[in-house]
Specification:
Residues 1-30 form the signal peptide. With 383 residues, this protein is α/β, with parallel strands linked by helices. It has helices at 13-24, 80-84, 97-101, 132-139, 160-173, 186-189, 238-250, 270-282, 362-378; strands spanning 67-75, 104-109, 112-113, 128-129, 144-146, 178-180, 182-183, 193-197, 200-208, 230-231, 253-259, 286-290, 298-301, 304-307, 312-314, 319-329, 339-350, 356-358.
Length: 383
């Protein structure tokens, strides 16, 4: 539980060292994916051998406890949600219930943050919010917010200095919130959030693959480069896959949270399916994403767990939504791979106020039936 099982400061030395290792290895990591990546094997079950001198045997290490990761979809503060930022501490209540119940909560912040700049004239929809949006996320129990999406620069690069100042100020005010997927250069944009929960380190890697056709949308030109600020862009997934491999070597659990797919589609595209397989092969234990603005299937893919589309979460359009909470068994100390052992949706509906409210009874039954259909559509396993 937040503030109980771990410190809210939660920047222990181990997590800091892991992040430092991930950053310092980025320059020397191979940019291309190996032809075949062998996943870590499941930890074998062993039986202790009786000893005649138990006092001489080293004490058996306690296995790490299972942890929970809450995944929710797109968040912005347009329409009726804009007024809620007047009281950011309660802006997402009661939609924060399921987020706060998990050890770690991740969402997509799909809006430009800060002040200055001007709406991109080439875009049909442009979103904007002040720094209070970050305060609202932290207050709602969000630990990691990704800005690797097709609305983070809706007000152009001229706003970016204000965006970075807002992120820095939010971190000083509440170190519990990490904002990833945007940075002064590509290395910073691809920097993972590394958070430790009761001794288990979780790395969240993010990138956007959305709206890359410059004739339809300019956001493909928003990629951070070695010399310019922007978002983590993975139209060429080599850098994303390398980031996942580095995270896999350094952290106990790896989450890849992407902005991908086709808007409005209920089934994942073949490109999504192919990249999901490559990410799991590279070491991602959980792969999740948004951009379709509707729910897509979730379930097992080999040793990993994939949720192709988390839909909207705090949005100006009513519709079905929810929070997917995964129970994850961390790897054993000496070997093995983290594994999702249970999944549960907090089924909800976005109302006219833009907020998610839990559904029950026949509406919850309909949600479960739709989830089963979407899983089949996505070609994923259950359990």
């Amino acid at each position: 539980m937040r503030g109980v099982a771990r410190s809210r400061a939660r920047r222990p030395i181990r997590a800091a060292l892991l992040l430092a290792g991930l950053l310092t290895t980025s320059a020397c990591s191979a940019p291309d994916e190996p032809a075949a990546t062998a996943p870590r094997s499941e930890a074998p079950t062993t039986t202790a051998t009786p000893s005649t001198a138990p006092s001489e045997e080293p004490a058996a290490a306690s296995p790490p406890r299972p942890m929970t990761i809450a995944l929710a979809g797109d968040v912005h503060f347009e329409g009726a949600l804009r007024e809620r930022l007047r009281a950011p501490a309660s802006a997402l209540t009661p939609a924060s219930t399921a987020l706060r119940a998990a050890d770690l909560a991740i969402v997509n912040l799909e809006t430009s943050i800060g002040s200055g700049g001007a709406p991109d004239p080439a875009k049909r929809f442009t979103f904007s919010a002040g720094p209070a949006a970050l305060t609202a996320l932290a207050a709602a129990g969000v630990d990691v917010a990704t800005m690797a999406n097709n609305h983070a620069l809706d007000h152009g690069r001229d706003r970016l200095p204000s965006t970075f100042r807002a992120i820095s100020a939010a971190r000083r005010a509440d170190p519990s919130l990490e904002v990833i997927g945007i940075g002064q250069d590509a290395d910073e944009a691809f920097r993972p959030a590394v958070i430790e929960v009761d001794g288990t380190s979780v790395a969240t890697v993010t990138a956007s693959l959305a709206d890359q056709d410059p004739t339809a949308d300019p956001t493909g030109a928003w990629a951070a480069t070695d010399a310019s600020a922007g978002i983590a862009d993975a139209i060429d997934p080599a850098r994303l896959l390398a980031a996942v491999r580095r995270a896999d070597r350094a952290a106990d659990v790896v989450v890849a949270y992407l902005h991908w797919g086709v808007q409005g589609d209920r089934c994942p595209s073949e490109d999504q399916r192919t990249l999901a397989r490559r990410l799991v092969g590279a070491g991602a234990d959980v792969v999740a994403g948004t951009h379709a603005h509707r729910l897509q299937g979730d379930g097992r893919l080999g040793p990993g767990y994939v949720a192709y589309g988390l839909g909207n979460f705090a949005w100006y359009s009513p519709g079905p939504t929810g929070v997917l909470t995964l129970t994850v068994r961390p790897p054993a100390e000496s070997a093995g791979r983290a594994r999702v052992t249970a999944s549960q949706w907090w089924p909800a509906e976005i109302g006219a106020d833009g907020l998610a409210s839990q559904v029950r009874g026949s509406a919850a039954d309909a949600f479960d039936a739709e989830r089963a259909a979407l899983r089949t559509c996505a070609g994923l396993g259950g359990g």
